[in-house]
Amino acid sequence: MAEYKTWECIVCGIYYHEAEGWPDDGIAPGTRWEDVPEDWLCPDCGVGKEDFELATDVESPQMVAGAEPAKEETTAAPVAAAAEPAATVASNEVFRKWECIVCGIIYDEADGYPEDGIAPGTRWEDVPEDWECWDCGVGKEDFELIEGSETVAAPAATPAVAAAVSVDNSLEPVVIIGTGLAGYNLAREFRKLDKVTPLIMVTSDEGEFYSKPMLSTGFTKNKSAADLVTTASADMAANLSASIHILTKVDAIDSTAQTVTFDGKVVKYAKLVIASGAECITVPVQGSAAASVYTVNDLMDYARFRTAMVGAKKVLVIGAGLIGSEYANDLTGAGVSVEVVDPMPTPLASLLPAAAGTALKNVLAEKGVTFHFGTVVESLDSNGSGVIATLKNGTKVEADVVLSAIGVRARTDLAVQAGADVNRGIVTDRSLETSVKNVFALGDCAEVAGHLLYYIAPLMVGARALAKTLAGERTEVSYSAMPVAVKTTLCPVTVSPAPRDVEGEWTIEEEAPNSVKATFHNPQGELLGFALTGSATSNKDALTKQLPAILV
Ligand SMILES: Cc1cc2nc3c(=O)[nH]c(=O)nc-3n(C[C@H](O)[C@H](O)[C@H](O)COP(=O)(O)OP(=O)(O)OC[C@H]3O[C@@H](n4cnc5c(N)ncnc54)[C@H](O)[C@@H]3O)c2cc1C
Fold first, then answer.
1. How confident is the model at residue 95, as a pLDDT?
2. 3-state DSSP helix/strand/coil percent for the chain, to nearest 5?
3. Distance from the CA of 243 to the center of ligand 1, in angstroms?
4. pLDDT in tens, 384-404
5. Which helix (H) or strand (E) holds 358?
6. Beta strands in 85-228 (DSSP E)
7. Atom number in ligand 1 closest to CA 278
8. Angle of helix 181-193 relative to helix 456-470, nearest 10 degrees?
9. Does the pTM exceed 0.70?
10. Which atom of ligand 1 is nearest to the CA of 414?
11. Cα–Cα dist 129/94, whole Å
12. pLDDT averaged over every residue in the chain
């Protein structure tokens, strides 16, 4: 029997050990990665299977004696068989490359595609027939052999960045501003391709690696800010062979001289990437306690909010969008009393049709959340050790702590300084390059070919493409449909919003109480978006396959 393997979540660092499975989610010990349901989400940070990588540098636990594997080896899915060649391929074998004729992505037999369980060294004919292009979602039939692509190469020993790197300090560096998921995932992807170019990272925070989605599930799980850190900045620097300047703001960018200034030093760059994220929009309220509103957009915010929450019994959440709803869910799960104010009639109103928003509202209300829809907070005044909010409709709400979650705005100031075009975000082309040569933008700060998407999936796609560009192979991003899972665990929601301003209408089916399947079709009958709540979220995979790509 083949040894069990370990898969690592590249967003939060948690491991899935095949030998142990994930019994809490009904995944028995011995379940191979390819047999883990495709809609399984990382138990810690909520990302999907596509954001796990084979952890070749981790010793995987094997089944304990007497324990029954979930499946006999002979019944394993084709991918398991396909993964075998990795161990047996000789270092001087010939590998070929196959190109996706739709999006141009290249499957290299030497590298395989460990993200989908296809080990390095897997021959094209051993890639499962139902495998799909990771970029644009077409099937194997849309790949063509690149004639003359045969190379004699060893399969990559490991995609991990911890591999020995010998940086050549005579080269001009790649500089990345920001160590959020965009900055770190880019650095990690870059180091898979280029082990010699110096890498400098500059961040105004502490540079620890953590998964931002976990900031809105931390109260139910009782996680402190320190608990959420998976890798310290010093270890990140070692793993990436990078120098990381923490608690440091970039003061200036001179895009003509190709320099950045920080800590009084002027550093020349070959390529500069702005991955400075987004900032919370300040809620416009009056009153003596207006300044005591908390926002949470990074680990330090989270630490401050948790300190404020010590002994707090009641929280007022301003905004019932994605983050506000997740916090209402999380704080309720932690036994805190929550009131939510939003000018719209239902939660997540910009993403969900009313029926789906109502389902979410019903479940949260049943669990004790009080909603004030169709109004806003006008003023916040001190009230003993807490606050009293006056809403526009005249209602007064008392709370110990106020959390604002009314949205974020891309940080564009550095790009403006560099002379790059900005719109709602830093304007880039499909190669993530700004209007200024050798200056790129990635993540929440970037508006890529008109798309400003404050989610992880697009930044992961961008990180992979930009890493190639930085390593010398100019690569454009393609966005397939990327549904977003809202972590309202009391009533799970998955949504793939239809493009703005397109004609069409919603069809609503209630499959069970508060389990809504809402689909949005254009007049030609094409599916353009969907919203799913409760048990109807099981329709996600089937519907996603029918959606058009966001950026082909
Ligand atoms: C509470 C919460 C929950 C979320 N949940 C989900 C989810 O479930 N699924 C999902 O897909 N998305 C989720 N998101 C969104 C997702 O987390 C973000 O899209 C993503 O983390 C953005 O990463 P980033 O690296 O672009 O930005 P950030 O993480 O904001 O990183 C920006 C970096 O830039 C640095 N920086 C900024 N300005 C400067 C400067 N002048 N000089 C130096 N450094 C600077 C900062 O210190 C930081 O290191 C959530 C967001 C929040 C707030």
1. 81
2. 25, 30, 50
3. 20
4. 999 999 999 999 999 999 999
5. helix 354-366
6. 94-95, 97-100, 106-108, 143-145, 151-152, 174-177, 199-202, 209-210
7. 30
8. 40
9. yes
10. 41
11. 22
12. 88
Q: What does the block give as tokens for 132?
A: 């799909």
Which residues does 7 contact at the CB level (< 8 Å), separation at least 6?
A: 15, 16, 18, 33, 52, 53, 54, 55
Which one of 456, 493, 494 would you pick to mutate in the ligand 1 pocket, going by the greatest count of ligand atoms within 8 A of its CB?
Answer: 456
Gap between the terminal Cα atoms of the chain = 41
d(CA 441, CA 448): 9
At residue 60, the pLDDT reads: 80
Q: For residue 366, give the H/E element and its range.
A: helix 354-366
Q: Which atom of ligand 1 is nearest to the CA of 184?
A: 25
The per-residue pLDDT for range 392-436, each reduced to its tens digit, is 999 999 999 999 999 999 999 999 999 999 999 999 999 999 999
pLDDT at 108 (0 to 100): 86
Range in 31-40, 113-122, 403-412, 424-433 the model is least confident about? 113-122
**Distance set, CA 51 to CA 23, 70, 292, 426 (Å):** 20, 23, 37, 25
Distance between Cα 252 and ligand 1 center (Å) = 21
Select from 359, 341, 403 the least CA-distant residue to 537: 359
Output the pLDDT for position 148: 73
Alpha-carbon span 64 to 108, nearest angstrom: 36
Pick the closest to residue 212 from 299, 277, 278, 281 (CA basis): 299
Question: Which residues make beta-bridge pairs with 433?
Answer: 440
Show the ligand 1 pocket: residues with CB < 6 angstroms: 46, 177-183, 202-205, 212-213, 215-216, 249-250, 275-277, 296-298, 323, 411, 414, 443-444, 454-457, 459, 484, 487
How many angstroms is it from 226 CA to the middle of ligand 1? 17
**What is the C-alpha to C-alpha distance for residues 398 and 382, in angstroms, rounded to an integer?**
10
Token couple for 307: 């300190």
Q: What percent of the chain has pLDDT over 90?
A: 71
Going by C-alpha positions, the residue among 95, 174, 154 that lies closest to residue 127 is: 95
Ligand 1 centroid to 297 CA: how many Å?
7
